[in-house]
């Protein structure tokens, strides 16, 4: 059965290969378990974990790790992750290693990691794209957490987005959600242009990043380009350059502009109440306050415009082991409710936050046929009310 607060996705608007998706979930768990063992091996080799038979307190272990400012939340999350996975165990108020750490000891050597990674990619092709980023992050995690190496040099080596982009290629789960976003955006644009035959539809994507969602959405709008303006925005100049390279050729209807969803639209050159669709895919969790970001999204929209939000709604160890290296992953305010050991909101949390920001008719969609406990991502569509107006 599906989650009670997640609606069945209309068919055949967007479908999913259930057998392939099941293989993906199995493969993704195998990749994640490899990452957990790799983490334990690297921390043990660095002298961070207690020796076999010894016990150390959480603060003592983190002190050995020498966690830099900005990474305290990640340090705590990593220890909880290892304990939940059975690589560490609580013994009184302290932590001890289990036999699984000794079994993973070989992963302290790069050659052993490379060989295991190659085998993993061969045996689990559905999640092969996740492996290179995981290996890069875990083999350099200690240096990043200590502040000796910037996280962006690991996630985007040489300014390249190849490691992150590899996740999006031929990925049955991400492809499903991207097509779902594209279908929802296309449908709203179609209805708007039919209702207002002399108008242009305005779509704004905030935090477009590497364009993983942008591509399917732009492709879905190909037959509407004569009456469409699409704003590809991000706070990072490197992402805007990437966007121009990928989507700027032969697409005069696409504009590229810097925009920070944490700031008011009117302060950044965007007219409040000017957009028909605002799209935010896997970006709003990375804000200091989701509540403020949602108010700014609402301010951008015309009355009756829609916000399409695509977000993880369950904590995944893979994300902690990779994107968790980015300081922005942990920058949320202390007083904002998030899923423990993550920057995420669950489905109920998103519904509540969208309602507080002035949205109505909030609809949540996830992979059809999955039990509630197995849903890890959700796409929300919410309608803006009242005048777009100023956001402050």
From TrEMBL:
GO terms for molecular function: methyltransferase activity. It is an enzyme of class 2 (transferase). Residues 204-307 form the Methyltransferase type domain. The keyword Coiled coil does not apply. Keywords: Methyltransferase, Transferase. It comes from the Bacteria. Its EC number is 2.1.-.-. GO terms for biological process: methylation. It holds the Pfam family Methyltransf_12. This is Class I SAM-dependent methyltransferase.
